[in-house]
Amino acid sequence: MKKALITGVTGQDGAYLAELLVKKGYKVYGTYRRTSTPNFWRLQSLGIFSKINLIPADLLDMGSLVEAVHVSDPDELYNLAASSFVSSAFEQPVGNAELTGLAVTKLLESVRIVNPNLKFYQASSSEMYGNSKTKIQDENTPFSPASPYGVAKLYAHWITDIYQKSYNIFTATGILFNHESPLRGLEFVSRKITNTVAEISLGLKKELVLGNLNAKRDWGYAPEYVNAIHLMLKQDKPDTFVISTGEAHSVLEFAKIAFELVGLNWKKYVKTDKRFLRPLEVDYLRGNPKKAKRKLNWKPKITFKKLVEIMLNEDLDRWKQFLDGKTFPWDAPAYPSESNIITRLSKENTSKNSLKKRKR
C-alpha cells in the first residue's frame, strides 16, 4: 500500500486530494495545527475524516515537520499548506512570508534529512505572475508577483527547484490558477458570491458587497485540479506544469451568472466597497494548460458556468438544511460578518472613500 503525506489536509485542495488518494487505495496522512477550534469540516463533509491519519505539526517548527515525515514515511509528499488568502498576506506580510515561503525550506530540509527518495509536490500559484504583460501565462512566462503572497510563493517555487537540482529530490511544482468548489473558504470571492446569493434568494440577506468587479481570473474546478497534482508525481521525471482552463472571466461575470441561476437581477443587489480592494490589484490572469494536456493527458471538463452552478446549488442546499434545523459539517454559520472585520487596509480604503465623498 502506498503512503502519502499531505500538509494542509484540512483545506480545500488537501481534502479533495485526500479523497482522491483514499479512493486509489493509499494510506493517507495529513498534518494539522492543534488549535482550540479544529477545522475538520471539509474532511467530514467528504466522509473521509475517519480514514485520514492525522499528525500534529507546525510549519514554523522544523522539528515537527521532521517528525511528520519520519512518522508517516511517505512515498509521496504533497505540500498544500500555506496562508492562501491573498488579501490577508497584505495584512500579515511577515507571517505570510514565513508560512508560505520559508516553511517550504524547512519541509524540504526535513525531506533531505529523513527520506530524499520520496516524491515531493509543491503547490505554486498563478499569483507569481502578478500583473504579467502577456495575455496568457505558461511555464516560460516571466514571474512578476504583485502581493506578499505571490512573492512568498515564488520563493517557495524556486527553493523547491534548487533542492531538486542540488540533492536530486523528485520535486514537481504545479502552477495552479484559481480553482474553486463548494469547499472553498468564505473569504474567497467565488464562495462569497455563491454563499451570499444563496442567502439573498432565501431572504436572509439584502446585498452582496464586492471589491474589484473587473478583475479577471482563470477559474477551474478544484476536484479536477487535484487529479492533475497527483498525475505530476506519476511522471518519470520532475517537472513544472501550469494547471488552468485557458479562459478568463471577471468577478462581475461570476456574480451575474449566480444571480441569473436564482432568477434575480444582479444590479439590484451588488454593491462595491473600496475596503475590499487590494493595495496593488492584479487585474488579469489566464493560464495556458497545453503542456499539462500533452504530458499529463489532463484537461478540465467543468465549464465556468457549471462551476458557478455547482457552488451555488451546494450553498442553497446548505442554507435550506440549516433553516430546517439540520446539523452538518459547514463553515458559514461560524463565519463573522465582514462588516465586523477591521484591518489596517480596510480602514485606510474606507477613510479614502469617505474623504472623497466629503470633497464632493
Describe the structure.
By secondary structure, this protein is an alpha/beta fold. It folds into 2 domains: 3-180 and 219-243, Rossmann fold; 189-217 and 247-284 and 302-350, UDP-galactose 4-epimerase, domain 1, CATH 3.90.25. Helices cover 42% and strands 14% of the residues. The protein has a 7-stranded parallel beta sheet with strand order 3-2-1-4-5-6-11, sandwiched between helices. Strands 7-10 form a two-stranded parallel ribbon. Helix 1 (12-23) links the parallel strand 1 (3-7) and strand 2. Helix 5 runs parallel beside helix 6 (148-167) and helix 7 crosses helix 11. The longest helix has 22 residues, at 93-114. It is globular, with a radius of gyration of 20 Å. The relative contact order is 0.12. The model has no long low-confidence stretch (mean pLDDT 93).
